[in-house]
Amino acid sequence: MDHTALLALFDRDLREGARPDGPDARVERTGGVVRQVADAQGWNGVLWSALDEAGAEAAIAEQIRAYTGLGLDFEWKLYGHDRPADLGQRLRAAGFTPGPQETLMIGEAGGPVLDAEPPKGVRVLPVTDAPGVDLVAEVHEQAFGADSTWLRHRLLAQLATDPDTVVAVVAMAGDEPVSAARMEFVPGTRFAGLWGGGTVEGWRGRGIYRALVAHRARVAAARGYRYLQVDASDQSRPILERLGFMPLATTTPYVYEPGRAAARS
What we know:
Layout: H1 3-16, E1 26-30, E2 33-37, E3 45-49, H2 56-69, E4 74-79, H3 87-93, E5 97-98, E6 102-108, E7 122-127, H4 130-144, H5 149-161, E8 166-173, E9 176-185, E10 191-199, H6 208-222, E11 227-232, H7 237-242, E12 246-256, H8 258-264
Helix pairs in contact: 4-5
């Protein structure tokens, strides 16, 4: 895979050419910025921007006005190659709070990732209904220690209105859900995104995460998608590199919450 060409393809198809990620979302293009607007339980934020030093602060201020006017918190998803080079500093100065930096990684759906299998006693099941979504949400809460209300809302809506764009799976050890993940397809592109892979404490280090990546890779390859995209944490990056994924760029979520921003000003 050619690093420069692949990053340009990613930017064009998944950022500048972004599509709404759910039935209640819309994508808007205005003033060199591509943003998604959804309800309060959906993802709201800036996906792509083409800014220069002269216009960056005005563009940032416009996004703040647009989202706060709707009563929404939002995220500016900043990549390491975005311009201007000091965009992260400008976002912090405007009241955004940076989250943990992750690594954008791309793998071939038909590559070495296909070979991983779950450990003995663990089976991978597809999620197609509300009880299955509850299992995914239960794993999410245990693995990440975070509320899963938004995840239930999103998965249920996707399965009900556009099931061909999402695949969710849960790994079961007997009757216990021990790991879960999802994959979202982007029609008209060669990319499928891997999201939410998490394993509950006590079951980590046994190859379950690898197995869920491999399961989703097989599904993506069967549907004709070439590339798998992941925003990898420091914990998952080495696993993905062993599975043939290549790091392309860093990505950092800058979150704007009006109450917090006002307190800092």
